[in-house]
Every structure is written in structure tokens, then in C-alpha cells.
């Protein structure tokens, strides 16, 4: 099998997500399997060029994994004609400017979300990329989770009949950083640095809802900062200026109503850190990261409300496990493989910068809805 090389500038790999999911479990995992089989007798070999602000951290990662190229000079990387793809997993506030530079340099774009700090910037990026003729994609990893892939199978198989509603619960307790170290970086809780759970999670909910159930047509949200004071990575106290919890109601095309709670200030009493319950006229299902359980109309129990007597039914046991019926790869790696095929073969790819702009739009409208205390329509986007 012949080898074709694609050089990828990976900006932000010293961060948790950039390193673990994108470098280690995606790009390096593709290399460990011998490259990406293109189906024509050749394999695509990704060659990462590590980019970031901390040279020692970059050097450490490069040496750990036997990589040759790393730099703190983004402009030099973008000026290198041998670099094919620019990937961005930086802090949100730095992303838009770097993506604009990469588009101007003629690089194909793959990026984490949100793609910009506002809708105008996100749409401008999508237009610039289209005008430049570069291929572009946005990470929408939750679509590739085993639980949601099984849920998609039920949707496409007509299991639910007419879908009525979606209920989502996401979150966990992020320690304040005083007596236990926080599991998330402190910038997540500073609005001036692009932090906040609405900005972080509403783009996820947009693509999950859009791809599985229909376009979001309205949003009513309440954002809150439940923990107003935290400690940063150095143990110094700081004021949390961004929301750590959000409660949203979304109307979708076709009349489906979705309610999704997102919180970094909630203790988990569910099987997985995120779960979606879908109810339809013919059946219901509950999907998490990996599991999906379903209950058909024909096997739905008939409970009767009587608070004077203890419940005798085990409701959880009345649901049937949806089988895997296949093997599931890491979701980030699976989407990387689709995007790289798109870059070198021109295969179809739906999750582009316009899709990313829809996520920015929903976050922006969610924050505005919370500030104004009212429901807002979500206009359909186009370039």
C-alpha cells in the first residue's frame, strides 16, 4: 500500500481536549493503525505539526510521541506551503483570528467550536472559507458517540412514530478549586475569555438536535452563575463572570419540543454524564454516551398515580437495551477520518463552518433570551 502524507498544523494541543482527543486518540491513533485507508491502494499518513504558546510543553509532547515538528510561531507554520490543514483547539477568544489567517493562507480548516465569539464573525469565516475554495469542517463529536449512533438508528428506522419531545440532562460537579482541584480550566468561568456553559454547550445541542430531530426554530433559556467565586490553577481566588448552568427549551421544525439542562454545578444521579430521553407516539428511548435503552408502545406499562402506596414496579427494568450491532470507534477519530477523506478525495461532508455558525447563533440567542427573559426565534442561516 502506498503512503500519501498530509501535514496538519495542530494549534492548542497542550490543552486537555486538543491533546487527549485530537492528537492522542485521533491523529496518533490513525498513525498507529498504519494510516487512513483511502480504498484505492493508498493510505493517508497524517503528519502533525504541533503549535502553541508554550515551547516547553510542546517539546515535551513531541518527544513523548516521537514527533519532529513543533513551534510557537503560528505565522511561520501558515506560511509553509507544505502544511495542508490547519486545526484549532485553542481558547475560544483566540480562535477566530487564527482561522482567518489560516483561510488567507489557503489552508483547509478543521476546528473546535465555537468557531467565533459571535454570529457575525462565524458567518464571515464561513464565507471567507467558501470564497477561498478551502475545505472546512467543525468538530461535532457527539454525533459519533455509540449512544447517539444507536439513537439515530431508532430515528431512521421509524421506531418512535411521531416524535413528541426530547429531554436532555448534561453535567457534573466541577470543584471550586479550594479543597479539591477543579476539573476544568479557569477561563471556562470568565466571560471575558470566552467562557460560559451556554457558549460551550449550546453549539453541541444545536447540532445534536439539528441532525437527529430537526432545525431549532426558537429558544427560551435561563443562564445562571451558581458558584460565583472559584480558585484558578495557581490557587488564586477569582470571580466567575460566566454562567455555569443553563436551562433551555428549544422548539424544532415539525413541532418537537426539546428541554436540555446543562450544568457544572450538579451532582450526577443518572447512568451517564449526558442523557437524552426521546418520546414518540410509538416508543421512547434514553441514550447516553454509550448506552441506549428503548421501550416500545406495545410494552409500555400502565402506572397509576397513587402517592399513598409505595411503587412496586422497577421502571428502569422495563426498558430494553438497544444492541451495538457493530463496533464503534472513538467519536473524535471517526470524524477526523471523514474530514481527511473530504480533504483528499472530495467526499461529501456536512459539518462545515456554516454548521458551526448555527451553534454560535444558538448560544448567542440563548444568552440574549436569558438576559431579556423571553422566547426568541432562531432564523435559518445561509451564506
From TrEMBL:
Signal sequence coordinates: none
Start and end residues of each Gfo/Idh/MocA-like oxidoreductase N-terminal domain: 47-138
Domain of life: Bacteria
Domain GFO/IDH/MocA-like oxidoreductase stretches: 149-285
UniProt-recorded Gene Ontology molecular function terms: nucleotide binding
Annotated protein name in UniProt: Oxidoreductase
Amino acid at each position: 500500500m502506498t503512503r500519501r502524507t498530509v501535514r496538519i498544523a495542530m494549534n492548542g494541543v497542550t490543552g486537555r481536549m486538543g491533546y487527549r482527543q485530537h492528537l492522542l486518540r485521533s491523529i496518533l491513533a490513525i498513525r498507529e493503525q498504519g494510516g487512513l485507508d483511502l480504498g484505492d491502494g493508498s493510505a493517508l499518513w497524517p503528519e502533525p505539526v504541533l503549535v502553541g504558546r508554550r515551547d516547553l510543553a510542546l517539546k515535551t509532547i513531541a518527544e513523548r510521541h516521537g514527533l519532529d515538528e513543533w513551534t510557537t510561531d503560528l505565522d511561520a507554520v501558515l506560511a509553509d506551503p507544505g502544511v495542508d490543514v490547519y486545526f484549532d483547539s485553542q481558547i475560544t477568544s483566540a480562535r477566530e483570528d487564527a482561522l482567518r489567517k489560516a483561510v488567507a493562507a489557503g489552508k483547509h480548516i478543521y476546528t473546535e467550536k465555537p468557531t467565533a465569539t459571535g454570529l457575525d464573525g462565524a458567518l464571515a469565516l464561513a464565507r471567507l472559507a467558501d470564497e477561498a475554495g478551502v475545505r472546512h469542517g467543525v468538530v461535532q463529536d457527539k454525533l459519533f458517540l455509540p449512544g447517539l449512533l444507536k439513537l439515530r438508528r431508532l430515528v431512521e428506522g421509524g421506531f418512535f412514530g411521531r416524535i413528541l419531545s426530547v429531554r436532555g440532562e448534561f453535567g457534573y460537579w466541577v470543584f471550586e478549586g479550594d479543597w479539591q482541584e477543579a476539573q476544568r480550566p479557569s477561563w471556562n468561568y470568565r466571560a471575558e475569555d470566552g467562557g460560559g456553559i451556554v457558549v460551550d454547550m449550546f453549539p453541541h445541542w444545536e447540532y445534536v438536535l439539528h441532525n437527529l430531530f430537526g432545525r431549532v426554530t426558537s429558544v427560551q433559556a435561563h443562564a445562571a452563575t451558581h458558584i460565583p467565586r472559584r480558585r484558578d490553577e495557581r490557587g488564586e481566588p477569582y470571580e466567575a463572570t460566566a454562567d455555569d448552568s443553563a436551562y433551555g427549551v428549544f422548539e424544532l421544525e415539525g413541532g418537537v419540543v426539546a428541554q436540555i439542562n446543562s450544568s457544572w454545578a450538579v451532582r450526577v444521579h443518572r447512568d451517564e454524564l449526558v442523557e437524552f430521553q426521546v418520546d414518540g407516539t410509538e416508543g421512547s428511548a434514553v441514550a447516553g454516551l454509550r448506552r441506549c435503552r428503548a421501550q416500545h408502545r406495545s410494552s409500555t406499562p400502565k402506572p397509576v398515580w397513587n402517592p399513598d402506596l409505595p411503587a412496586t414496579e422497577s421502571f428502569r427494568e422495563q426498558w430494553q437495551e438497544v444492541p451495538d450491532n457493530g463496533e464503534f470507534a472513538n467519536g473524535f477519530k471517526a470524524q477526523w477520518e471523514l474530514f481527511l477523506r473530504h480533504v483528499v478525495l472530495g467526499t461529501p461532508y456536512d459539518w462545515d463552518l456554516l454548521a458551526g455558525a448555527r451553534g454560535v447563533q444558538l448560544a448567542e440567542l440563548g444568552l440574549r433570551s436569558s438576559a431579556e427573559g423571553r422566547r426568541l426565534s432562531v432564523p435559518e442561516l445561509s451564506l
